Every structure is written in C-alpha cells, then in structure tokens.
Amino acid sequence: YQRRVRGSTQALAVFGTVETMENPFVSPDEEKFVDYPEPPAPPETLKKVNDDIDDVYLAGLENYISKLGEHIRTIQNEETARMQRFAKQLEKLKTKSSKRREDAEDDARQEFQQTISAIRRKRKHYRQMERDALNERRKYLESMSFQKHEQEVLRQKLLKLGVIEDDNSEPSTSSTAVGPFALLFLVFEICLILAYLHSNFGKYYDGALGDYTLQNLGQPSRVDNYYTFFIHMTIFVFFGWGFLSSWLKKYAYTSITVTFLIAVFAFQWNYFMIGVWRNIDAVEWQVIPMTFEALIETIYGPVAVLVTFGAILGKITPLELLVMAFLEILAYSLNYYICIYVLNGMDPGGGITLHLFGALFALGVSSSLSETFRRSKTIRTDDLSSNYRSDIFSLIGTLLLFVFFPSFNAALAPNGTQQRAVINTILSLLASVVFAFLVSRTFRKKYISIRDVQSAAISGGIAIASAHSLIIVPGAALLVGGVAATAVIIGNIWLQPFLEHKTNSRFSDTRGVISLHGICGLMAAIGGIVATGIANRHSLYGQDPTEIFYYGTPNQAGYQAAILFITMGISAGTGLITGFILFAIRRVSIGKAVPLTFTDEQEFKVPNDFDRTQKPVEDDYEAIVH
To answer: What SS3 state is found at 288?
Structure first.
C-alpha cells in the first residue's frame, strides 16, 4: 500500500509543477461549486463501480467522495427539516395576540436564521472538501494517463532500436499454433485435390483432337489466343484488385496478400463448382475440360469474391473470409449456371453476374458483420483512412485495371464480336477517366479527390461489361463511360453516407463497392437490355443476330432482363444468409470480443516502426469514472 501511495505521489508531482497555471479543463463555475446543493444519490449500480477499482489510492478517493456526498445530503435534509419546523412554528404563533405574536415571530426568525446560517456554513465547508477531493481525483487520473502515454512512447523507441522484442504483433486470433483458419483451409484444399484427381477432370481438350485449336488457341475471328487473354486477366485479378484495395494506411499486408490467397482458393473452387452445375442434370457425368477457355470462364468467380471483400475490407478475419469465399462461390456458380447456361444470357464482362452480384452479396454480409463494430462504436476509427503512400499504391491498382479491362470484358465475347468489345471498353474507359477528374473537381469544390479517381476512372469498364458492348456504336460507349464516372462520384459523396446514416451504420462500405460495382453493374444490365431491344433484327455488323445472341434481337432483351432480376434475388438472399453464418462463426470463435479493425497487426508480424493501434484497456480509470 505504501509503494502504491508513493507511486501515486510521484505521478501527481508531474502536474504539481504546473498547478498554478490555468487549467483549460476546469469549469468556469468551479468557484460557485460550494454554493450549489449536493445532487441526489447515484443508483446502486454506479455505487458498485468502486468495488471494481483495484487501485488503492483511487478507490480511497472514490469512497471519500462518496462519503462526503452522503454527509452533505444529511446536512441538506437537516436544513429542510429545520425550515419545515420553522413554518409550523409560525402557524402556531398566529393564534396569539398581535403584540405577542410579533415579538415571538421576531425571536423565532432570529433563532431560525442563526440555525440555518450555521447549517449552511457547515454544508459549504464539506462542499469545499468535496471539491478538493474531486480535483485530486482528476489530477490523479491525468497523471496516470500521462504515465501510460510516456511508457508507450518509450516502448516504441525501444522497439525501433531493437532493444526489446515485440510481443503484440503475433497473430492473436487463435490459441493454437495452427488455428481454425489453417485447418479449414487445409481441409478444403485436400478435398479439391481429391476432386481434381477424378478421371473426368484435367482433360486438356474436349472431343476430337481438332478441337484443341478452338479451346486453347482461338480462331481467326478472334482478336488473340486464349493464353494471352488469360495472362491479362491474371494480372487484372491478382495485381489490380490487390493494389486497388490497399488504400487503407495500415492494411496493405492484408489487402494484397489475402486478396492473392482468397482469389487462388476461389479460382480452384469455382472451376469445380461450374463443372458440377454443368453436370447437375446429366444422366452420366461429362468430362470437364482443363482448357484455357475453361480457365478464363473460371477466373471471373474470384473477382466477385474480391468485390464483396472490398465492402468489408478491414472488418473480417481470415477464417470468416475463407468461409465467405466458399459460400459465395457456391452462390455465384449457381447464378452463373442459371443465367448463362440455362437462360443463355449474354454477359461477357460480368457486369450483371459478377459486379452487380458481388455488390448486392456484400450488402447482406456487411450488415451482419458491421453489427459487432456498430455496437462498440468502432466502425469509424482513425485507421479508416489513407495516407500519401497508400493512395499511391491504390492508384497503381487503378492503372493496372484500366490497362487490362478490355481483355477482361472481351475474353468470352462470341466470335466476330471480340474486336468491338475491346474497342468499346477502351472508349468507355477513356471517357470515365476524363469525367472522373472533371466531376470530382466540380463536386469537391475545386479540389480533386484521389479516392474518386481510384474508383471512377475504371467505372467505364464495369458499366459496359455486358451484352451492349458487342453491338453499340463508339459514341454510345463514350457516353456510357462519362455517365458511369459521374454516377460513381455522386455515390461516393451522397449515396454511401446516406446508406450508412439510414441503416445506423449497419451497412458500412469500406471501398465504395455499392457506388462503383452496384451502380455501374446496374447500368450495364440496363444498357444490355436496351441495346438488344432496339438492335437490328436482321443483321448486326454483317453477322446474323443469332450468331451473337442465342435468341436473336430483340428477343434477347427479355432474357437479359430475366438474368438481371435472378441475379439480384440470388445475390441479395445468399448474401444475407452468409452474413448470418459469419456472424455466428464470429460469436463462436471470439465471443463478444471486438477484433481490431483496419490494421494488419491482428494477423501479421509487422515491422517495429508500424503505428500500432492501442487496444482498449479494461481497467481504464477514466472510463470507469464516467
């Protein structure tokens, strides 16, 4: 106890040297404190707070203040009782004669004033004692906060010098060396390996040997061979999306590496699931070829997962992200099978089945995962921001996506249309870049927001990623890009804050997924419906419409509308179910604890100069007092 008191005295001495200075935290009414009455007693639940304080000196101060408050309230009750007795005494004196009553009233009034003055002097004295005790408690809490800050500064300096080892940067989500994330990932990989070992997987071409050229090298009516497109798309997925998500200043490790890891897993899982759905109604299991055409069709699935990941960036653990990728690929492959294989819809760039699907799927997932942070009010933190370097990395991702978007949108375009898909995508992207700068500077009051440029510059590639990219004229492609960039910036400025406010932060979109992929995906769907509905029904650029669209034009428009509504229903419904499952997994894995948000220190061993996020301290004395 004596050591505790000596340590407290030393801490208070820090503020003793500046005691005569004006304290900005002291109320200007403090001098009137002694004249104010003591407030009513606090509830019993607040009185029990003192029992939770393990600091002897602070606990003594709290008990001392509490006892003073009880004593002052006793004095105030005595004052009230004396005033009531005086009022009754005056009532009794009304029965006496006027001369005797006046003398008696004067004597009673004089006695009352003397008694009340004595009581009030005593109350004022104890109120002064209470004020001194409250100031002592405030200074003690300030000294403790000051010491805590100084110790953290010293620890950071020692970490940079390498004098001490960092004991807070190790992954803390699991109590075992392996953890549930690694175990579950291992189980998934073993199952996929066993599935790929099946004799009906791994055929490098389907049918006769002559089909090899069609399924791997393409043909004269296509822009380039499939391998070139595949290389472009892998750079698009693994480089572009990873760097685009690295705008958070303390989340670059996770944004880039986890994007890489989850995209690889989703790629394997999507190839298997597309093969399953294609054989779901087959009498005999058909061969699932391992061709570049099949791989290109497969790589669209991981992008849908990465789109959803962007909305919950910084708020999801690797275990939850793995489960989400597993469930989302199930839903994506089912939706893709229905829209493309059953209904023969046309969506070569994935505007509907990829971008819109991922954005709506994110709505359900984000609403459930954000509930934990919304209750603890940790959705908005200082870590949810960028710095100069992180924005540069994200801009690199934007540039990579800009360069390889034409290949992504045209890789699966029908024969004879690939050239138009490439050119229209390029034109749409060019217009979106121009409008991204112009509209951002206009709405941001003569300043350009780098966040607007990072997203709106590639909006043209998403808004044209459907059936209309195959048949519209160049001017229409430019119009699509300009409108898309404008819509994205408007969404960033007004739509996203509106959604967060109206849902009470239940939907918190980290990377603006709804503005970029949701709005632009919906534009792509509407553009495909309108373009196929008004197109020439006899000839499209010298081709028969049935060579491009299964049902020809304008009949294809109805099926494009059908795949839009089917995608919206499947994505929103399965996203909501996935969100509930992930919330249950979080409760089972970490209970009611709140994981650190938007920082890499939770899962990675970070460098010594990493600006660590301070974890909330349970014995925060200032929080206890308030």
So the answer is: strand
Between 404 and 164, where is the model more confident? 404
Whether this prediction's pTM lies above 0.90 is answered by no
* Residue 10 pLDDT greater than 90, yes or no: no
The span from the CA of 242 to the CA of 565, in Å, is: 30
pLDDT at 332 over 60: yes
Amino acid at 187: V
Q: For 222-247, b where at least 16 C-beta lie within 10 A, e where not — what string?
A: bbeebeebbebbbbbbbbbbbbbbbb
Are residues 328 and 578 in contact, defined by beta-carbon separation less than 8 angstroms? yes
Residues in the chain: 626
CB atoms within 10 A of CB 456: 32
- Cα distance between residue 344 and residue 572, in whole Å: 22
Give the orientation angle of helix 2-16 with respect to helix 98-161, to 10 degrees.
90
Q: Which residues lie closer than 8 Å to 96 by C-beta, 6 or more apart? A: 104
Which string of DSSP letters, residue by residue, matches 563-587? HHHHHHHHHHHHHHHHHHHHHHHHH
Among 186-190, 287-291, 322-326, 358-362, the range scoring the smallest mean pLDDT is 287-291
Q: What is the pLDDT at residue 378?
A: 55
Tokens of 109: 């009034």
121-135, 202-216, 464-478, range with greatest mean pLDDT: 464-478
Please report, to the nearest 10 degrees, the dihedral formed by the alpha carbons of residues 8, 9, 13, 14 taken in order: -10
Of 531, 585, 615, nearest in space to 347 by CA: 531
Assigned token pair, 348:
């070569």
